[in-house]
Amino acid sequence: MLKNIHPALGADVLHALRSMGHGDTLVISDTNFPTDSVGRQTVIGRPLTMANLSAPQAIAAILSVLPLDTPLQNSAGRMEVMGAPDEVPDVQREVQAEIDRAEGKPCPMYGIERFAFYDLAKKAYCVISTGETRFYGCFLFTKGVIPPAGA
User: Fold this and answer.
1) pTM score of the predicted model
2) Which of 16, 29, 60, 80 has its CA 20 to 30 A from that of 93?
3) Model confidence over 54-86: pLDDT tens digits?
4) CB contact burial 106-127 (16+ within 10 A = b; e otherwise)
5) Active-site pick, 6, 15, 30, 69
6) Set 22, 36, 90, 110: catalytic member
7) Is residue 138 a contact partner of residue 78, using CB atoms and an 8 Å limit?
8) Could you tell me the domains of the chain?
């Protein structure tokens, strides 16, 4: 255990989050996502897991240490429901609440068509698979910066 670090953040996930730079992306996926095959095509070249957590739980832990790139761009994306891109399933609403809580303000997610999401995921820094069993529990985040003290 470490002080002030969410206990769900294991060494591999912490290493990946710390190694990412400004503008790098990470994918949080549900259990149905092709995590292994896509994860092998990412920058780190292997999938990571937070298998004992739902997507909202994993994202709450990750956002406790990961800054989002919200001042410059919309930095949280969600996989759109096929045939109903404006539909927002419960899992996505729950994740939206975690994003807003972490950022201290509303930071709406943008929709990403399913196959476009797969293409973006292959270019991500890493893919972290959760234990989320609900459909469309897949998200893309862009890492931001932490300003110097007093800025």
Assistant:
1) 0.95
2) 16
3) 999 999 999 999 999 976 678 999 999 999 999
4) eeebebbeeeebbeebeebbbb
5) 69
6) 22
7) yes
8) 23-142 (3.40.1650.10)
